[in-house]
Predict the 3D structure of the following.
Amino acid sequence: DPRISQDMKNYFPNHSDLEYARNRFVDIFMNLQKSWTEQRWELARPYETDSLFQSHNYWIKDYQKKGEKNYLEKINVTKIVPVFLYNDKFYTSLTVRIYAEMIDYTLNKTGKVILGSKSKKVSFSEYWTFIKGTGSNQKPAKSHDINLCPSCGAGLKISMTGICEFCGSKITLAQFDWVLSQIEQDEEFNL
């Protein structure tokens, strides 16, 4: 789509900014898959908005309650394609289509595979929407390292409410960097 290409050129005039965003999206994707497999969703807290985090946390707890565990292994992001870019006075929203492959299976409490395969990779794509503050809703990041607080630069240790335990900044508001706000499956997505 030529419109998204032009929007991307306008928003990311420097190729390095676009590369940074793509790398950030891959880092978030990989960290979320790891947190999901480990059933330690608190590790995903820095990367999602409040509502998306709560939704995913619910599903992790549901798996735990049923004694099931979903494993995501040998994960590879093969392509990221920008789909839609929107700006308003508070946020920029960027929807990308993430193409990936992985081994995806679920075990019950006895260790039996109840869904998926331990050996066969599946290829898929999903639409992920990231947001980032703009204008007065944007703050300069002290660090772009995914393992450090963007506000104070300390080792990333945040509460379940998204607040850095060192400086008190709420880092999940997308004021410092891109944060995931929505995931849609291929069959659900439309502009």
